[in-house]
């Protein structure tokens, strides 16, 4: 009888899961779409496409519009990474990550006893890396842009001058950083005002800076009046960035990390981001398991993902850094025999302990705030870009004269190998500070092909959790049959080797499941943050229409036509 009931019930559940109703689709459009953290930015990007611009023109517009509408993470004082896939299938990526200033030293955040000086790498002028965003957008426009730069900049300048309406979430974000704004800046700043929901923030100084950049080009920011004002401002506030630092900054075209998972081809960011390599390692480690049958966020699925994540983040910590400064054994790290060996001691019976996992042995023959946007244009080009100031409003240092916040990206270096940074990531020697070096990132802008055609554009903020959030979003669509919007909405978890714990979004996972995991030796925590990641993605549906997935954990919005 018991057996009979179980059979009936499991048949019912199997039937129910096979006939899973599509409960939620995001915005559907026919031709083109931009999904970003703010409606204004998505609209400005989409309007550029409507005018006949391509995804690269729209990238420039969206990136700048986020600097105006979403200064929490959107920026011209930070940097980022962009992965593209052109309509003809050609792929590539751009590194416009910040760099350490020429006067930076390995021990610049340590006191005389070699202890970390609290907040020096996170708050104020010493935390700033040389910004890369303006170099990035001009590199993109020069290579692929079709509209004149004036046509792209003007709507953004208008947005700065006419103002941005404060949302409820934004009012909370600004309010939450008031103490830091006061601590870091000599005077009150525009964002020290008591901004309330529906107020309008007008940024005429930023509008003027953008106008000068529009008129004089990239060099305005790196060699012109803006460069002089910026380096003077940073030094007046105790920083070390000079005019020479700005003048020497270059964005860099790199080769993306490309790998296969089932029938998908995944194109993601290469170092100095760890995103692509870690995503590839994790996906290759989990590929032999039948996730589809285990089901979404079930015990077995969580175990497999956690164990693969643990092993990959241990490698991240040891091997990954700026490839212009260290040799990264990418081929070995992605080798299938190596990855199989890494998972060899995994068992469903018991959690592996992170203390027993170190980076894998490789024989080398010598040798929480970011924002992501996804774009597909009417010609079939796709852009996936993640950009950041690192922390919320970066270093909190705001240059009132120029109208923007400066990043605190220097914290992504390992200030002291073995000591965690603000995301709890333990860095190794390879990611130590050196002049002109780029700090290791987790940003994972990603594009996916299926049957040689564009399938998905995806990415997210979230510090250390970026890689595992992108991973879960891809699996949600590919393994668990979700729509783009469902895949974005679904509850998320994360493991990063150290600390040895599974972070879960609070109140989203079943208590019995948590108990089962604990029983197997996993430590579960929900304390870090109310959300993990904020994904913005676009899925190409079978009929070639586009579905946007805009994360309602934020104000994110899809706009298209
Ligand atoms: O590059 C990185 O990995 C970090 N600077 C990203 C920071 C971030 O995502 C913060 N957002 N929550």
From TrEMBL:
Catalytic activity: glutathione + H2O = L-cysteinylglycine + L-glutamate; an S-substituted glutathione + H2O = an S-substituted L-cysteinylglycine + L-glutamate; an N-terminal (5-L-glutamyl)-[peptide] + an alpha-amino acid = 5-L-glutamyl amino acid + an N-terminal L-alpha-aminoacyl-[peptide]
Family annotation (Pfam families): G_glu_transpept (PF01019)
Pathway(s) of this molecule: Sulfur metabolism; glutathione metabolism
Keywords, in A-Z order: Acyltransferase, Glutathione biosynthesis, Hydrolase, Transferase, Zymogen
Binding site for L-glutamate: 97, 388-390, 412, 441-442, 463
Catalytic residues as annotated in Swiss-Prot or TrEMBL: 370
GO biological-process terms attached to the record: glutathione biosynthetic process; glutathione catabolic process
Alphabetized PROSITE patterns for the sequence: G_GLU_TRANSPEPTIDASE, PROKAR_LIPOPROTEIN
Enzyme Commission (EC) number: 2.3.2.2, 3.4.19.13
Post-translational modification: Cleaved by autocatalysis into a large and a small subunit.
Keyword Acyltransferase in annotation: yes
Domain of life: Bacteria
UniProt GO MF annotations: glutathione hydrolase activity; leukotriene C4 gamma-glutamyl transferase activity
Entry similarity comment: Belongs to the gamma-glutamyltransferase family.
Subunit structure: This enzyme consists of two polypeptide chains, which are synthesized in precursor form from a single polypeptide.
Entry protein name: Glutathione hydrolase proenzyme
